[in-house]
Design a protein that fits this description.
- Helix 24 (about 740-750) links the parallel strand 21 and strand 22 (about 765).
- By secondary structure, the chain is an alpha/beta fold.
- The protein contains 26 helices and 22 strands.
- It starts with 7 loop residues before the first helix and ends in an 8-residue tail after the last helix.
- The protein is globular, with a radius of gyration of 30 Å.
- The strands form 5 sheets. The chain has a 7-stranded mixed β-sheet, sandwiched between helices. It has a 6-stranded parallel β-sheet with strand order 2-1-3-4-8-7, with helices on both faces. Strands 17-19-18-21-22 form a 5-stranded mixed β-sheet, sandwiched between helices.
- The chain binds thiamine diphosphate.
């Protein structure tokens, strides 16, 4: 903020800044008020607004610099406006769900209003220069879901500052020697969530430049703070985090949401400290309010007392700001008269109204274009007598509708086409073609960018086979992984590998053994036991141009992170319509080890919650390495599940470590056969290999296919080609019944049309529905064994030909 000395020039600058802030506060408030009306009158679907939080955000925004990052929530409209990342018009376009990125750059109408983001990628999916813009990572709705990512956004600055290898021109679009601060925001009630605590603890341990603001309005919807927070105060509850003269931690500030001068001073101190010393800071902004209540879903009179309602009025931050301006006597003249402030408020009102109207016009015009072109086609059909006159009334209603929805237009077109079944006419062809075109447009509007659409999408990475010397040594799987990691760490200076026990001891399975010594603690490092924020740490760093590989120690513990993977990572591209990406690789190991919590293979749960990511299920470590090598060249998030029982299994050592690349979505045929197609992946695939010679002895010719990746799945439809030959199908995995096998069946039978080639009902063999029991016997009786596979295959053959294969 401008400092106020005696000179007129400085006073003028100060006055200008204060009055600009006042105007923006009024603009933002007016946007909230009008936004609510738009929802209540039916023009928008749902509204959640930033009224009451304006002043704190104006203060914060003064110290938010180009290169900085925001990870906040739905109350932050003033902040976004103040940093120039959100126009009022775009704000309303978001509320209406305008699907054009040029008009609604945050999510192209995909998220509800109040979910903010900047466009950090160009139209080709390539990074923009993030140090020249003020960045906001894309919001998500789950309370505290913004926290884990915030950790990574902040940690990226520490990595960039401390690793000189990243001070080259290649990385200058991401960071200028780590001088960027990551700013977080959260509501007081959402601090009750686990990810909040996990993130704050990790930030204190890591000492990262994070400025965390809590907008404390005393309620989480209707539940008051005393039922949310120990000691009824987040800053008091966190007092033990306060750094001291001889111990690092957080710097904690408290301030009040209606006190403009104190807010500005607080943020100036907080941000400077965090930026220069890389200290995490908590700013507890108390006495914030919520003039319109939580959202358009209900009214706050239901749960706030009359006294509280009265207090909220007297402590409204804009009213208080006005009082402060009018009573200001620290300069050569008053800052403004009441008339001037009223005039500013009126101007703000008019401007917001005009922007809102413009947004509405753009929104409706876009849809009206479709209505008018449909009108032309349907009128032709009505005139020629093929389409019933009854459609005329519907058409008239559509054209007159002042609040049209695209679905009304398409639904009318589809009903018209259905009614024309059995007729042929040139106009019908036009209608049919029109609908096909609209289907394509709708795909782009509502379903594009689930995955990367850039030139670095996974399918564009050329595959390279592993090569071997004629006398290639056999090595433990872990050595292959380790040496592959070594090559990758040499090749990509922005690659980091981290997780529980990943640093000093090189991983519980030793696949990173010695790499921290070679590459240092900034490249290969340990984390606390905190799966959710290990992932968030990865997401945030990946959003800032680093290439993290985050380790989750065992697949079973991915559950602790599944929420953030599903809600945040898997939706980054989709929820921004290609405006942001986070090419994070997650490495874990699973399927088989010991007991209830070290043997899980919940693949159905994983693939069903992680659409938007790739999921690789290699059967050995050479395959796993091949996937890592491909993923490092691509710009997409992925999960690689190494088979737990493969670290000590011998594999041939390739000569082109770090270079060979496995394609995703390709099935590998491991045996050719004519009687039955056996489909599997991961650890059970290795059991299927063991079953092959036994089945051969029983006179059964099996075609064994390794699907290798579940997302994507068999892109060339190789499985159905096998079924054309064998006409029988068995799928084996170690998920629960109807877990991943249900998905695989759907892919093969429905998508690939495998149904038409089957002579027998398709079969699946999975683990028992309970968690796997401990010990070798627990494993044998809980999970598919070689015996189970052999007998299941035999049973299928016996059903088909009991003479040749009599019952066992
Ligand atoms: C994980 C999750 N649980 C519940 C909700 C529903 N919900 C949305 S906002 C909200 C209250 C949040 O209160 P607070 O953090 O104080 O923020 P405020 O809205 O008051 O600014 C709740 C419970 C949600 N979005 N996400």
């Amino acid at each position: 903020m401008s400092t106020l000395n005696e000179t007129t020039l400085e006073f003028d600058a100060f006055k200008h800044e204060v009055l600009s802030d006042y105007k923006l506060a009024c603009i933002s408030r007016e946007a909230s008020l009008l936004g609510r009306k738009e929802v209540l009158t039916g023009k928008a679907k749902f509204g959640i607004f930033g009224d009451g939080k304006e002043l704190a955000q104006l203060a914060l925004a003064k110290y938010f610099k180009p290169g900085d990052f925001r990870s906040g929530y739905y109350r932050d409209q003033t902040w976004m406006m103040a940093i120039g990342a959100l126009s009022v018009q775009a704000y309303f376009s978001g509320l209406y769900a305008h699907t054009d990125v040029a008009v609604e750059p945050q999510s192209a109408g995909r998220q509800m209003g109040g979910h903010f983001a900047t466009r950090n990628l160009d139209e080709h999916g390539q990074w923009k220069n993030l140090t020249q813009q003020k960045n906001s990572s894309a919001d998500i709705s789950p309370t505290a879901g913004q926290m884990p990512r915030l950790l990574g956004l902040a940690l990226a600055s520490k990595i960039y500052r401390n690793n000189p290898a990243l001070h080259t021109s290649e990385f200058q679009q991401f960071s200028i020697e780590g001088n960027e601060v990551a700013f977080g925001s959260i509501g007081d009630a959402s601090t009750s969530e686990g990810p909040f605590w996990e993130t704050l603890n990790a930030a204190g341990v890591l000492q990262v430049p994070m400025v965390m603001s809590v907008w404390d309005d005393g309620y989480g919807i209707s539940v008051p703070r005393e039922l949310q927070t120990t000691k009824n105060s987040i800053s008091e509850a966190l007092a033990g985090f306060q750094r001291t003269a001889d111990n690092s931690g957080f710097e904690i500030f408290t301030t009040k949401g209606w006190d403009y001068a104190h807010l500005c001073q607080t943020y100036e101190k907080a941000v400077n400290l965090s930026r220069t010393e890389h200290v995490p800071v908590l700013v507890h902004v108390q006495e914030v309010n919520q003039p319109q209540g939580h959202s358009t879903s209900g009214s706050h009179e239901r749960y706030k007392s009359a006294e509280r309602m009265e207090w909220e009025k007297t402590h409204d931050c804009i009213a208080k700001f006005k009082e402060w301006i009018l009573s200001f006597d620290g300069g050569p003249e008053p800052l403004a008269s009441e008339e001037v402030l009223d005039q500013i408020a009126n101007e703000a009102k008019e401007e917001v109204k005009a922007s809102k109207n413009k947004a509405w016009t753009l929104f409706t015009e876009d849809i009206k274009k479709d209505s008018l072109s449909l009108e032309g086609i349907l009128s032709g059909l009505i005139q020629e007598g093929t389409l019933s006159n009854a459609f005329q009334a519907e058409l008239d209603a559509l054209i007159k509708n002042r609040e049209p929805q695209r679905k009304d237009v398409y639904s009318l077109a589809r009903r018209a086409l259905r009614s024309l079944r059995g007729t042929e006419s040139a106009n019908k062809t036009v209608l049919s073609q029109w609908l096909s075109k609209k289907k394509e447009e709708s795909h782009d509007r509502y379903s594009s960018y689930l995955y990367s659409e850039s030139n670095k999408q996974i399918g564009n990475i050329p595959s390279i086979e592993p090569t071997y010397d004629s006398d290639a040594p056999m090595e433990d799987g872990r050595i292959i992984l380790r040496e592959n990691y070594r090559m990758l760490l040499e090749k990509y200076p922005n690659l980091l590998v981290f997780g529980e026990d990943a640093g000093k001891i090189g991983g519980v399975n030793q696949s990173l053994e010695g790499l921290q010594e070679t590459f240092g603690e900034l490249r290969v490092f340990d984390t606390g036991i905190r799966e959710c924020t290990i992932i968030g740490q990865g997401i945030g760093m990946a959003m800032r141009g680093l290439r993290p590989i985050a380790e989750i120690q065992y697949l079973d513990y991915l559950l602790y992170a599944i929420q953030i993977l599903s809600d945040d990572l898997a939706t980054v591209q989709y929820r921004t319509k290609g405006g942001q990406k986070a090419p994070l690789i997650i490495s874990t190991r699973g399927h088989r080890l010991e007991g209830v919590w070290h043997s899980g293979s919940p693949m159905g749960m994983i693939i069903n919650s992680l659409r938007g990511m790739h999921v690789c299920v290699p059967r050995n470590m050479t395959k796993a390495a091949g996937f890592y090598n491909t993923l490092m060249e691509a710009d997409e998030p992925a999960l690689v599940i190494e088979p737990l029982n493969g670290y000590r299994t011998k594999e041939k050592m390739p000569t082109n470590l770090g270079e060979f690349k496995l394609p995703l979505g390709q099935v590998e045929r491991l045996s050719e056969g004519s009687d039955l197609t056996l489909v599997s992946y991961g650890s059970t695939l290795n059991l299927c290999i063991q079953a092959l010679p036994i089945l051969e002895e029983l006179g059964i010719s099996v075609e064994l296919l390794d699907v290798q990746t579940l997302l994507p799945f068999d892109l060339s439809h190789d499985i159905v080609k096998s079924l054309e030959k064998t006409n029988r199908l068995l799928i084996v995995d170690e998920d629960v019944s109807a877990g991943a096998t249900a998905y695989i069946l759907e892919k093969i039978l429905v998508e690939q049309g495998g149904y038409y080639h089957l002579d027998e009902a398709p079969q699946t063999l999975s683990a028992k529905d309970h968690r796997p029991a401990y010990g070798s016997d627990g494993d044998y009786f809980s999970k598919p064994s070689v015996d189970d596979i052999v007998e299941k295959v035999y049973e299928l053959m016996s059903n088909a030909n009991p003479t040749q294969f009599p019952r066992i």
